[in-house]
Amino acid sequence: MDSSHPKAVLVFSGKRKSGKDFTCALLKERLGDVCTILTLSAPLKCQFAEIHGLDYEQLLSASSYKERYRHDMVVWGEKKRNEDPSIFCRLATLDVSTQHKVWLISDARRKTDVAYFKETYSDRAKLVRVQADESIRASRGYVFKKGVDDSETECGLDEGVLWDYVITNNGDEDDLDRQLTQLISSIQDGLINEIKTDVS
Ligand SMILES: Nc1ncnc2c1ncn2[C@@H]1O[C@H](COP(=O)(O)OP(=O)(O)O)[C@@H](O)[C@H]1O
Ligand SMILES: C[C@@](O)(CCOP(=O)(O)OP(=O)(O)O)CC(=O)O
């Protein structure tokens, strides 16, 4: 593995409907092709869909179809992680083009996810928590589900993590834009000067 690649790995975590995907898409828009979005859930959903004859594309979407199978995917995923804690981290980051110097991992959920990226990429890995008030999440379609929202998949990173950045995403677009601008400039200053060339 090329130890100099990637230059930065932003590991995002947040509750359902907090805006992880939304925030990563905005960052990708701002950073361009130097950046790529990777999800730990994609390889899990791919395998789960194959085993159960389900529609992978629908599992990837923000749909009721995904929600219908979420709990079963969580249980199956945890069984696989118990056998090999970093399996989905490795699968999600396989063969990423060296063109993409900045990786946005949009959906870390467990201490083992965080540990993998910190151990593998050291200080190139930065932990980002996206947070939104529960009322805002509800307005985006969040409904509490027992066995999901009170279990590790949604609570595994609620405590004991020192976040490098916390993004508050309650719908104030100017505030979000300001936070993302700060995040991008601190990454550029701190970790990856090359991005200044790539995005200028
Ligand atoms: N700041 C925002 N402004 C407008 N819509 C938003 C904002 N943040 C999230 N959303 C919308 O809310 C829904 C949930 O956001 P998403 O990023 O999918 O959450 P998560 O990935 O954390 O579950 C999506 O439809 C998304 O487009
Ligand atoms: C089984 C899962 O991978 C399903 C995650 O699906 P998404 O990542 O699509 O969830 P959102 O937070 O709503 O964007 C969770 C897990 O515990 O691995």
Automatic annotation (TrEMBL):
Its EC number is 2.7.4.2. The keyword Transferase applies. It comes from the Eukaryota. Pathway: Isoprenoid biosynthesis; isopentenyl diphosphate biosynthesis via mevalonate pathway; isopentenyl diphosphate from (R)-mevalonate: step 2/3. Keywords: ATP-binding, Cholesterol biosynthesis, Cholesterol metabolism, Cytoplasm, Kinase, Lipid biosynthesis, Lipid metabolism, Nucleotide-binding, Steroid biosynthesis, Steroid metabolism, Sterol biosynthesis, Sterol metabolism, Transferase. InterPro entries: P-loop_NTPase, Pmev_kin_anim. Transmembrane segments: none annotated. GO terms for molecular function: ATP binding; phosphomevalonate kinase activity. This is Phosphomevalonate kinase.
